Amino acid sequence: MAKIKITLVKSVIGYNKKQRETVKSLGLKKLNSSVIQEDTPDILGKIHSIAHLVKVEEAK
After folding, report:
1. What CATH number is associated with residue 22?
2. 25-57 burial by CB neighbour count: b if 16+ within 10 A, else e?
3. Exposed (0-12), middle (13-18) or buried (19+): which is 22, by Cβ within 10 Å?
4. Which pLDDT does position 17 carry in this prediction?
5. pTM (global) more than 0.85
6. Domain total in the chain
7. What is the pLDDT of residue 1?
8. What pLDDT sits at residue 60?
């Protein structure tokens, strides 16, 4: 599986609880924090639901 780098680029303040919990479940905490995750359908679904808050890149 490929690896992807997920970076939180917008604050979760003002968004509903479900979106805040999705950000937390991906391992993101503070603004501009990044995590590297596997490219699985579960992770891609989470990214799709908070696409307006994160930036996704291919990890090297």
Report:
1. 3.30.1390.20
2. ebebeeeeeebebeeeeebeebbeebeebbebe
3. buried
4. 97
5. yes
6. 1
7. 81
8. 83
